[in-house]
Design goal:
15% strand, Rossmann fold, 9 strands, 315 residues, 14 helices, two-stranded antiparallel ribbon
C-alpha cells in the first residue's frame, strides 16, 4: 500500500495546521475512520478503470481511499480553503497518486459536463444533508456516463432514497432517483467516525443506473415525469384522480388517463412507482398529441403519410 489513510488525530492536526474550523452551513463533518472509507470504496465496486466524481472531499479521507483503489478522481469542493489544501494532503500521504487527482473549487449544483475533459463513470461521496438530494439528482441527469453511485448521507435521507412505494418514507426523492436506476441500502454508519461528531447516524446508498433504460431519458421527458411526481406528492391525502385533475383538465379526464395507464384512479400518489408515472405520461393525450397542419397547408398534405410522433419520446 502506497497511501496512508487519515486517522482521527491526523484529521484534527491537519485542520489545526490550516486554521480550519468546520462550518455548519456547508454540513462539514469529516470521516476519520479508515475502515469506514474502505467499506465505502469497496461497496462502490470501483477499480483502476474508473473515473470517480467525488463531491465534498473535505480534508481528504475518502479521496485517499479512492486513489488507493487505483481510480482517477475529480473532487469538487465548495470550500476554497479545503480545495486548496487537498492536493497537498494527498501528496504528503502518497507518492505519484496525486497525479490521478483533479480538484475543482465549485458548487456542485452548478457543475456541468463542460467542466470536465473526461466523463466520470462513478459517483462516490459523503453528501451533506442540505444538498444531498438536489446534488444527487443533478449529477445523475448531468452525467449519464455515471453508471454507479455510492453515497453516504444522513440516515433519514438514506431511508427516503431507498423507500419503496407505499412505505412511510416513500416520497419525491424515492420516485425520482428510480428514474435513473435501481436503489439499495448498504447499512448504517455511526456518528463516532466523524469529526465533529454529528447528532445523527448516516446511511450508505448505492444506485446502479439502468444499463438500458426502460423509458426515454431526454430532459424534456424527464421534466414532465418529475412534474407528475411533484403533483402526486403535493397532495398526499388525495386520490390520484383528484390529485391529477388540474393537470388533466378535469376529474373525469384524470380518471380516463389513469385508467389508460392501468392505474386505479382511487390509488394515492404515494403508492405509485416510477413505472406508473412514466406510463401515465406516455399514455396521456398531452404526450401523444398529433399537431394539426396549418390551414393553408391542408391541400398539400392530403394523401400524405400520418405524422410520425416517435421523436417525441426518444432521447
Amino acid at each position: 500500500m502506497t497511501i496512508r489513510l487519515l486517522g482521527r488525530t491526523e484529521i484534527r492536526h491537519l485542520a489545526k495546521s490550516i486554521d480550519f474550523r468546520p462550518r455548519k452551513s456547508f454540513g462539514q463533518n469529516f470521516v476519520h475512520d479508515a475502515n469506514t472509507v474502505r467499506r465505502i470504496v469497496s461497496a462502490s465496486g470501483i477499480n483502476r478503470n474508473d473515473h470517480v466524481l467525488e463531491v465534498g472531499p473535505g480534508l481528504g479521507s475518502l479521496t485517499l481511499a479512492l486513489l488507493d483503489r487505483g481510480a482517477t478522481v475529480s473532487a469538487v469542493e465548495i470550500d476554497p480553503v479545503l480545495a486548496g489544501q487537498l492536493k497537498i494532503t494527498v501528496g504528503e500521504h502518497s507518492h505519484s497518486e496525486v497525479n490521478r487527482l483533479a480538484v475543482y473549487n465549485r458548487d456542485i449544483l452548478t457543475f456541468r459536463q463542460s467542466d470536465l475533459t473526461d466523463m466520470p463513470t462513478a459517483l462516490v461521496a459523503n453528501l451533506p444533508y442540505n444538498v444531498a438530494v438536489p446534488a444527487l439528482l443533478h449529477l445523475l441527469a448531468e452525467f449519464p456516463s455515471i453508471r454507479t453511485v455510492m453515497v453516504m448521507v444522513q440516515a433519514e435521507v438514506a431511508e427516503r432514497l431507498a423507500a419503496e412505494p407505499g412505505g412511510k418514507d416513500y416520497g419525491v426523492p424515492s420516485a425520482k432517483v428510480r428514474f435513473f436506476g435501481n436503489v439499495r441500502r448498504y447499512g448504517m454508519v455511526s456518528p463516532t467516525v466523524f469529526w465533529p461528531i454529528p447528532r445523527v447516524y448516516s446511511g450508505l446508498v448505492r444506485i446502479d443506473r439502468h444499463e438500458t433504460s426502460p423509458w426515454p431519458t431526454d430532459p424534456a421527458f424527464r421534466k414532465q415525469v418529475f412534474e407528475l411526481i411533484d403533483i402526486a406528492f403535493a397532495q398526499r391525502r388525495k386520490t390520484s384522480r383528484n390529485a391529477f385533475a388540474e393537470w388533466a383538465g378535469s376529474g373525469n379526464e384524470s380518471a380516463s388517463r389513469l385508467l389508460a395507464a392501468s392505474i386505479d384512479p382511487s390509488r394515492r400518489g404515494e403508492t405509485l412507482g416510477i413505472a406508473d408515472f412514466v406510463r401515465l405520461l406516455q399514455r396521456s393525450s398531452d404526450w401523444h398529441v398529433v399537431p394539426k397542419p396549418e390551414p393553408e397547408a391542408i391541400s398539400e398534405s392530403v394523401g400524405a403519410p400520418a405524422p410520425d410522433n416517435q421523436d417525441a419520446s426518444v432521447g
